[in-house]
Design goal:
Elements lengths: L1 H21 L3 H23 L8 H13 L3 H18 L12 H12 L1
């Protein structure tokens, strides 16, 4: 689960990168904001459906490709970094949720064992 929240933080970073770094073209600003929103939504979906983490590889590969072909050095650095980190986090499995018995059932089991 920490990997999914890390992916969400990368999405927020992509949204804020144009403001913090200062991109010169509006196209680069819109691209990173749109990709950041996509990554945030995909990360939240992966929290609910663990196999959705593999879908995060698509925006990660897109960011790497866009960063390599970008003419702006600041935007390229942000996109390459975000894409590489997203690709690495997409490979990290989520922790398996184990269903717990209700509290009443657990207390009955202890009472039966002591009797």
């Amino acid at each position: 689960m920490p990997a999914r929240w890390g992916s969400f933080a990368i999405g927020i970073g992509l949204i804020l990168a144009p403001l913090l770094i200062g991109y010169p073209t509006p196209g680069a600003v819109l691209h990173d904001i749109a990709m950041g929103l996509l990554v945030c939504i995909g990360s939240l979906a992966a929290l609910e459906w663990p196999r959705a983490r593999f879908a995060m590889a698509a925006p990660a590969l897109w960011l790497v490709a866009a960063g390599r072909s970008s003419g702006d050095g600041a935007a390229a650095a942000a996109e390459l970094t975000a894409g590489g980190l997203l690709l690495a986090l997409a490979l990290v499995p989520s922790a398996r949720r184990v269903p717990r018995a209700p509290p009443l059932a657990r207390s009955r089991g202890r009472a039966d064992a002591s009797a």
